[in-house]
Amino acid sequence: MSRKRGPYDRRESLKRGVYLLPNLVTTGGLFAGFYGIVATMNGDYNLAAWFILISAVFDALDGKVARLTGTTSRFGVEYDSLVDLVSFGVAPGLLMYSWALQSFGKFGWLAAFLYVVCGALRLARFNVQVDTVESRRFVGLPIPAAAGMVASCVLIFYQLGGSGEIKKISVLLLIYVLAYLMVSNHSYHSFKDPELVKRQPFSFLVLAIIFIIVVVAEPEIMLFSMASVYIASGPVGTLLKYFKRKPPEEKTSDNNESSETDVENNQTS
Hints:
two-stranded antiparallel sheet; Four Helix Bundle (Hemerythrin (Met), subunit A); globular; mainly alpha
């Protein structure tokens, strides 16, 4: 007969130890996110953006390492969420405030705070829905993707010849949009499809190599483009689903027309 585990049992499981490898990878992501904050405080916004993206790489790796080595644990899940809040919530929020939002006064710091709190809510919702939501889809914009959009905006700004801070209301609106998307019900692809790791046609490999070459050639432009397309995919997908659904009034009228046609055919026969 199974027994529900209490707090004492959980403490005992921690005493037996934690898995080292995946948690070290997660710690690497925390280091990158924290250094992104340090770079922001030093006014090196370009470097801060790169370290946020480096943290996203660690975030993508830690879960895969845990699954491949069979070292997944509840401790790792909770630790990963805390690291995500720092690396993809606090670090991008502080970066955007220092780089673009400070000149807007209270609307600027409120936008930065709203981004952070919506990111925290997004992580909390993901943790409670992880066993009930389809793994191939995310409900709401993932916080690493939102942070990637923030970082890519900074990188494309410097790539196009900008310097120092930027003072455009479009950046302020972007932060509010990202905050909304994280807590919305828009569906986003998770790229966790098992079919992706199976055998694929040879042409897929060639296309993947060409794609990597293009990204390496112009990383700032490509990262900004990919982040923009991914973020837009949620609302666009919702709109497409809405327009594909047939309104109930049309369905009712169609049913009435078909029934009248049947009656006429029966009378004729």
